[in-house]
Fold Pyridoxal phosphate homeostasis protein.
Amino acid sequence: MTVKDNFDQIQAEIASICERVGRDSQSVHIVAVTKYVSTERAQEAIDAGVNHLGENRVEGIEEKRESLGDVVSWHFIGSLQSKKVKKVIDHITYLHSLDRLSLAKEVDKRLEGKQTLDCFVQVNVSGEESKSGLHPQEVLPFIEELSNYPSINVIGLMTMAPFVEDNEQTRPIFKKLKQLQLSIAEKGYKHAPCTELSMGMSNDYHIAIEEGATFVRIGTALVGNEK
Ligand SMILES: *Cc1c(COP(=O)(O)O)cnc(C)c1O
């Protein structure tokens, strides 16, 4: 299957899910995760019509963005060390992994209040030890603190569901993130509109969309895995 075939199929699936659950399919953005593939393969995704590319490593973003340019929006989806912020800050439009104040502080310092960065606060809904992100009860106080960093715009929440055989088991996790997102959006914080949900990957994006995902991060099912 070419990337174009995969993209067409995923888009058709998203359209049918959205119709079934009564959502506008325009509200779902597909982020093609290119961390397992070459720059050439990422170019195929752009040619197929993908508008968002995601990488989880600083080197991955630097390398691909240098050859592919900014015809697409770049998403940083992995954990980010504060000392590496300066390397990616000029390349990215979205940060999906804001999980601590020291990172917010560094981003804010680099942007010098001249610009804002659209960020998702990463939440560890499942509470698995191995997952990064804040525990659900920490999210609201954390977001309140973020008002001290004017360059941070909290557009939403992000989570990674645990890998399970039966992906129906991820549904409660997505539901919980949606509830949390709504409870924050309700506060009407200027620095944290929190209207978006980054959730769902190759194996569980169908369920994530049923539960309200607005950004799905799809690697393997879209561009494949060359590693
Ligand atoms: C790798 C990765 C993805 C995509 O994973 P696939 O299963 O290949 O779709 C999504 N989100 C994050 C944070 C990732 O690191």
Observations:
- The chain has a mean pLDDT of 96.
- Residues 202 and 221 are 5 Å apart (CA to CA).
- The chain is about 40% helix and 15% strand.
